[in-house]
Design a protein that fits this description.
Strand order of the largest sheet: 1-2
Helix content: 40-55%
Radius of gyration: 25 Å
Mean pLDDT: 82
Strand content: 5-15%
Shape: flat
Distance between the termini: 79 Å
Largest sheet: 2 strands, antiparallel
Number of helices: 2
Order of helices and strands: EEHH
Length: 111
C-alpha cells in the first residue's frame, strides 16, 4: 500500500470469503505510522464503546438526578472508581478458588 504523507489513509477490514468489506476507517496519522498500530487503534473503538455501555447501564453513570456540581462530581468519581476496579479485576491474574469443604456425607468406611 503506497502512503502519501499529505493524504489520509483508508483502512479497510475485508474478511476472507466476504463479498464486501465489514468495516473501514479514515486516518490522517503520519505516513510513518505502522499499519499494525492503525489496526489496533481502529479496533480500540469497540472497547471504548463497551466500557461506556458498562459505565452507563451497569454502573449507573446515567442515574444521577442531583443539581449540584459537587454531587455530580461525587457520583462520576464513584462510578469511575468502580469501573477502574472492574477493569483491574478483568485484566488481573485469575486467583485460585480456595478448596471448599464438601457438603456431601462421606461414604462409609469398610474394613
Amino acid at each position: 500500500m503506497g502512503r502519501h504523507p499529505a493524504h489520509p489513509d483508508l483502512l479497510v477490514e475485508w474478511a476472507q470469503g466476504q463479498d464486501a468489506p465489514t468495516d473501514h476507517w479514515m486516518s490522517n496519522l503520519p505516513a510513518t505510522t505502522p499499519v499494525a498500530d492503525l489496526v489496533r487503534w481502529a479496533k480500540m473503538r469497540r472497547r471504548i464503546e463497551h466500557d461506556y455501555r458498562e459505565l452507563k447501564h451497569g454502573l449507573g453513570l446515567d442515574h444521577f438526578e442531583g443539581r449540584t456540581w459537587p454531587g455530580r462530581h461525587h457520583h462520576v468519581t464513584l462510578v469511575t472508581a468502580a469501573q477502574a476496579f472492574l477493569t483491574l479485576r478483568r485484566l488481573g491474574p485469575k486467583a485460585e478458588a480456595p478448596a471448599r469443604a464438601s457438603t456431601r456425607p462421606s461414604p462409609p468406611k469398610t474394613c
